[in-house]
UniProtKB/TrEMBL annotation:
Belongs to the bacterial solute-binding protein 1 family. Keywords: Signal, Transport. The keyword Membrane does not apply. InterPro entries: Bact_solute-bd_prot1, SBP. Residues 1-24 form the signal peptide. The keyword RNA-binding does not apply. This is Sugar ABC transporter substrate-binding protein. It comes from the Bacteria. Gene3D superfamilies: Periplasmic binding protein-like II.
Length: 454
């Protein structure tokens, strides 16, 4: 299955439509737009809770200030719900469908569109997206060439965070390629600090590790095919990536405590192993959100006590990987009464101004190319954001997020479980590939039968 492309003719039609109705169709841009929705209430559902929820609330407050609309936010995590698709399904069953959902997985967005739950985004939103986002982000929000989802929040999942003090002690520098990263890891271990702490208990960081290695070795064409199960998980490229990944867990030098310790370590603990009081490792691989854990949980100054480098290239003829995830705003079908309010909110989210509100708070990245990088609170986050934006069309979406949840996103099954088993004993990558292939085939078949395939 090829990724959907936004047709140039459709975008041209959007521009033409806007030229005729520029002041009539947009609640945000029309002369009467200020406070246009006063007295109305918009319901938005998302996953964010805690600090993230509070920061998103400030974005919502910005919409209220501009339009007069009250905004009610429903957090799935605040209600103890980890499966966002089931959370939305239950809201619909109970007659409480939100106007807008901030969908955290591209596979879920596609599932909602295929079920007929979403309204296509109108030309005015499409044009605002074209102004502010690389085409790749518009494509990820599209299903069968129809634009449904506006990616407001992104993550950069190709960042490796390190302790500058540990690097200085071992006399190593950020690596230029994967081979050098492993060599540096051995030097770090020899100096008394194991190279990596790995969050194997959470499982999903293992999928991110694998995806970066796979993309860096096999390239974007194979990555796209594997992401849609076109080539299958017994392909030689998969086995090769598993072998590379497995070498990290042969002994305790490259991963603190080896696979056994990794399986007892969650994400926060893996970050704490590098930046906590008792340092157990020199590096931790995960996305840009690690910066928020470093400063928030461990009270370290990111610019001075922590730094990152991009996940390095592996194959000489391949580029460094750039993998991302994100949350897309979609308009749920509820009838015409709320549609204009929902579309105006999504149009607002497409603007640099909305992204700037959260960017100033930290713990946020935007794929919006027109967001001033100075909005981010520290130089390190600005560097991460620039790396993501500069990648442009080279960005690949998180592979497990594109898969059916039974394979790519569920604890105790599918890819999560099998990669956990693999790091416990990485001696037989071929057997792991067979199990992954069987699990993927079943999940995609089941999803296709029920109309929920990503």
């Amino acid at each position: 299955m090829k990724r959907p492309r936004i047709a140039v003719s459709r975008l041209a039609a959007a521009v033409a439509a806007l030229a005729v109705t520029a002041t009539a169709c947009s609640g945000l841009n029309s002369a009467s737009g200020e406070q246009q929705f006063s007295g109305q209430t918009l319901t938005v559902a998302g996953t964010w809770n805690g600090a993230e929820g509070k920061n998103f609330r400030k974005v919502l407050d910005g919409f209220t200030k501009k339009t007069g609309a009250k905004v009610k936010f429903l957090s799935s995590r605040a209600q103890g719900r980890d499966d966002f698709a089931l959370f939305i399904r239950d809201l619909r069953k109970n007659g409480k469908t939100p106007d807008v959902a901030m969908v955290p997985q591209v596979g879920v967005l596609q599932q909602f569109a295929q079920k007929g739950w979403l309204e296509p985004l109108p030309p005015r939103v499409e044009l605002e997206a074209a102004r502010n986002f690389a085409l790749v982000w518009q494509n990820y929000g599209s299903v069968r060439r129809i634009f449904y989802g506006l990616y407001f929040k992104a993550s950069h999942k190709s960042t490796v965070w390190y302790s500058p003090k540990a690097f200085e002690k071992a006399d190593v520098e950020p690596p230029k390629d994967y081979k050098e990263m492993i060599a540096n890891g051995q030097k770090l271990a020899d100096s008394g600090t194991p190279a990596f702490s790995v969050a194997g208990k959470d499982a999903w960081p293992l999928t991110d590790w694998f995806e970066n290695i796979y993309l860096a070795q096999a390239g974007p064409a194979n990555y796209a095919k594997l992401a849609t199960n076109e080539i299958g998980w017994q392909d030689p490229t998969v086995i090769k990536a598993l072998k590379t990944f497995g070498k990290l867990f042969k002994g305790d030098d490259l991963v603190a405590g080896g696979g056994a310790e990794a399986l007892r370590t969650d994400l926060n603990e893996s970050v704490g192993a590098v930046y906590g009081k008792n340092q157990k490792a020199a590096m931790v691989y995960e996305g840009d959100f690690v910066a928020g854990i470093i400063s928030g949980e461990f009270n370290r100054k990111v610019d001075k006590e922590a730094n990152f480098f991009d996940f390095p290239p592996i194959a000489k003829d391949k580029q460094a990987p750039v993998i991302s995830g994100g949350d897309a705003a979609v308009a749920m079908k509820k009838g015409k009464q709320q549609e204009d309010l929902a579309m105006s909110f999504i149009e607002y989210l497409a603007s640099p101004k909305a992204a700037e509100i959260w960017a100033k708070q930290g713990g946020f990245l935007s794929p919006n190319i027109n967001l001033n990088l100075q909005a981010y609170p520290d130089e390190t986050t600005r560097k991460v954001a620039k790396s993501l934006v500069d990648a442009g069309e080279a960005v690949q979406f998180d592979m497990s997020d594109q898969a059916p949840a039974d394979f790519g996103g569920s604890a105790g099954k599918g890819e999560w479980q099998l990669l956990q088993e693999f790091i416990r004993d990485p001696s037989d990558p071929e057997a792991t590939a067979r199990k992954l292939d069987q699990a993927a085939s079943k999940a995609y078949l089941d999803a296709s039968a029920t109309g929920t395939a990503g």
